[in-house]
Amino acid sequence: MNDTSTTRHQDGLRIIAASAVVILHYSDYFKDVTIGRFMVAHTWHFNLFVDLFFVVSGFVIARQYFGRVNDAASIGRFLWRRLARIYPLHLATLAFYVALAGALHFGAARTDNPARYPLSDLPAQFLLLHAFIGERLTFNFPSWSLSAEMFCYLLFPLVALIAQRRKEAVIALVAITALANSVWAEAAATTPWADWINQGGGFRALPAFNLGMACYLFRDQIARWPAIPGALAASLAAFIVLGSLLPTMTALIAVYAIAMLAVQADCAGRETLLSRLRFDRWSPLTYSCYMLHIPVATVIITFGSRLLSLSPYERLVLAPVAIIVLAFASVVSLRTFETPLRRYLTEAYDRRAIRPAPSPAISRQEST
To answer: Which of 187, 206, 201, 185 is nearest to 249 (CA)?
Structure first.
């Protein structure tokens, strides 16, 4: 059975997806000028790259943990490891915005969007529940996807147990969760479920995460699919350039298809343009980039433009500055904060979980 020793294409897609999300959100800071409005109008679909993260996450988590979360101890260790990866940077960026909210409260700073800092949203933020309850875009708002991811992690042991007995059930779960989302969106007259963030974002993630798991479980069959040269690069480029013309749900299906093409290339061990360009070299920075790009924009673009009294057009010069600072901050965060803290938390948990057995009491016979 092919054990997919490499995930180069999926890793390359991750950093491309994170970069696309940065472009989308940074464009919104310049919507007062023509180029900003143009970018916002033609990059709205980049928000669906978050769903690509969910597919890749489902594949990677299944690859690492399928068959290894069979009891309470292994499930606890799995969940702790996932928290050790995502929670420290989430807490750090949340603390940054809480401090900023305090500065706003005491008049040390000002904002055009005070609704972004509601104290009532903090419990959900701290408990990673903000993909289900709370305001739509508050504090470090991209972190909603962490809440959605954690929901998928909590369900993973159950889905894995079902899949161990009948792996076809995971394919059914993809269809069932997507159908349930569609029925609810129609019945409750919500936006398309691919747009769900704070009220339903966790349910939005489930079909994609399950799809990633299914791709891992059926990796041998996927590896044997007929390969179309250039299909991955062409579909990715077409989505980036033309995806804004697609209806939301059609665009979501396109994202799923791109993720599956990457899985196919990885499972078959094929070289493609994407792997030759070596985007996967930068994939370790994906999470840092994703979580830090809004705080960096707050400091560089928002505060910087006020400090320098820049006009809307003059502010454009801050876009490349923010991107450079983001790249630097991502490297520093990964090397000096995320990785050491993740290692410390993981080792601390393991030391606590694997305690040496107490020595048995010495019997009377042994003491004499």
So the answer is: 185
Measure CA 19 to chain center: 12
Does the pTM surpass 0.85? The reply is yes
Q: For residues 136 and 92, give the distance between their C-alpha atoms in angstroms, rounded to a whole number.
A: 20
Catalogue the long-range contacts made by 44-47 (C-beta closer than 8 Å, 24 or more residues apart): 44/244, 45/239, 45/243, 45/244, 45/246, 45/251, 46/20, 46/21, 46/240, 46/243, 47/21, 47/195
Q: What is the DSSP string of 150-172?
A: HHHHHHHHHHHHHHHH-THHHHH
- Say whether 252 sits in a helix, a strand or coil: helix
Tokens standing for 301?
């673009």
- CA–CA separation, 177 and 62 (whole Å): 18
Distance CA(218)–CA(62), nearest Å, equals: 11
Residue-wise pLDDT for 322-331, tens only, equals: 999 999 999 9
pLDDT of residue 354: 66
Listed as ranges, residues in the chain with pLDDT below 50 are: 1-3, 357-368
Question: Rounded to whole angstroms, how far apart are CA atoms 365 and 262?
Answer: 67
Per-residue pLDDT tens digits for 2-38? 445 689 999 999 999 999 999 999 999 999 899 999 9
Closest CA to 65 of 46, 48, 82, 42: 82
